[in-house]
Amino acid sequence: xxxxxxxxxxxxxxxxxxxxxxxxxxxxxxxxxxxxxxxxxxxxxxxxxxxxxxxxxxxxxxxxxxxxxxxxxxxxxxxxxxxxxxxxxxxxxxxxxxxxxxxxxxxxxxxxxxxxxxxxxxxxxxxxxxxxxxxxxxxxxxxxxxxxxxxxxxxxxxxxxxxxxxxxxxxxxxxxxxxxxxxxxxxxxxxxxxxxxxxxxxxxxxxxxxxxxxxxxxxxxxxxxxxxxxxxxxxxxxxxxxxxxxxxxxxxxxxxxxxxxxxxxxxxxxxxxxxxxxxxxxxxxxxxxxxxxxxxxxxxxxxxxxxxxxxxxxxx
Length: 316
Known about the structure:
Elements: H1 2-18, H2 21-50, H3 62-80, H4 88-91, H5 93-99, H6 111-134, H7 138-187, H8 192-202, H9 206-219, H10 225-234, H11 239-254, H12 258-315
């Protein structure tokens, strides 16, 4: 903060000393940057207040590292022009290609990269399990090698499924906020593109980045606006988001009141997100029963019944 104030003061002094337009333009740019930073901090504070407890994307987690490895391998295979050595029928590429868009991996992880990554992860995990098991016995080495191969083979599909679920949940968390900003801008007399541009500019969310990419496509003439919005809806596994996009497309095409329909959709999106969170909370006690029954309950039974069994064995 102090460094920013010093920089701003230096630019003001330069503008006053030079009296030219260059220093004044630099000061205005610094002022706009500071104002934008304040708006971003305010937006982040609003997000934290509205979405407390919402899951964040764990970029440094094991799942994200597995996906990053598949992306790097896909890039290397594309540059070398090589193909995967795993048959497509065995690698699960067909299922991956259907869900690659909703996981945000379309264009970054190829089918050959997915298959090759699964094979290498399975072989690497099997080798690691064999090395650990060889320290103790041959049987344990074979068992850990098989377990490692299965775990490595399933690591990438599991990471893709988790990424798809997190991405959809993150989108549905920020969707009401986006609808409110666009509806407020249109009620203030702004166009749809300008209102959406304000959300993209001042809200640092994944949904804002996705809308920004789509907006750049139709702004540069690469796609029609309707096609770009529908293509964006296909990248998320969310019926609510699909209905929001279709309502936007119909209103923009036929000239109906978009602000009124967006307000109703915002209420629907909030209700859907709240219902999903309540469902997850309701499932928590059932999930807790699994570690309770497998870990805590046997130990409690041994602690309670152990002395009784020892006493009975002593009597015999």
